[in-house]
Amino acid sequence: MEKKKLILGVIGADVHAVGNKILYHAFTLAGFEVTNLGVMVSQEEYIEAALETAADVILVSSLYGHGELDCRGFRDKCDEAGLKGILLYVGGNIVVGKQDFADVERRFKDMGFDRVFGPGTSPETAISALREDLHIEG
User: Fold this and answer.
1) DSSP β-ladder status, 57-62 and 33-36
2) Residue 70 among known ligand-binding residues
3) Is 17 assigned to a binding site?
4) What is the mean pLDDT of residues 59-86?
5) Residue 97 Rama label (left phi>0; alpha psi -120 to 50; beta)
6) pLDDT band at 137 (very low <50, low <70, confident <90, very high)
7) Which is deepest, 68, 90, 93, 122, by most CB within 10 Å?
8) Residues carrying an active site annotation
9) Which range is the signal sequence, renumbered to this chain (predicted)?
10) According to the model, what pLDDT value does residue 138 have?
């Protein structure tokens, strides 16, 4: 069975490389083909990589609290680039300050993200979501 392809990166001016590496290794060990763009990734870089690799999912990570600003318009750009329907996941400390996660999740879903993970979410939780959304057994 062909491996599902993921694009992983840390969006905007965020440089939290350790979490990015942990996610890369967790997703790779779980059997996904991961293209890791590293840190300080623009929306356009995610989209370009997704087009080049025919990715199934784009995973956006952010820890510095400005993910909401960095992610605005991302779904529209994906659609315009021909990536309509690609799964978009976002996770980390994606907003400034302490906010009710249900409100944060709703705002990101309204922006077109399929899954939203709060601070402290384990990689296993994201892997389970990937398997469910990509219809992978096991």
Assistant:
1) unpaired
2) no
3) yes
4) 95
5) left
6) confident
7) 90
8) 14, 16
9) none
10) 65
CA dihedral 29, 35, 39, 45 (to 10 degrees): -160
* 111-133 burial code (b ≥16 CB/10 A, e <16): bebbbbbbeeeebeebbebbbee
Between the alpha carbon of residue 110 and those of residues 16, 75, 105, the distances in Å are 26, 10, 9
- Do the annotations mark residue 95 as ligand-binding? yes
**CATH code reported for the domain at 16-132:** 3.40.50.280
**CA-to-CA separations, 87 to 6, 18, 109, in angstroms, rounded:** 10, 24, 12
Tokens of 76: 């529209």
| Confidence band for 104, pLDDT divided at 50, 70 and 90 | very high
Residues in the chain: 138
Which is higher by pLDDT, 23 or 138? 23
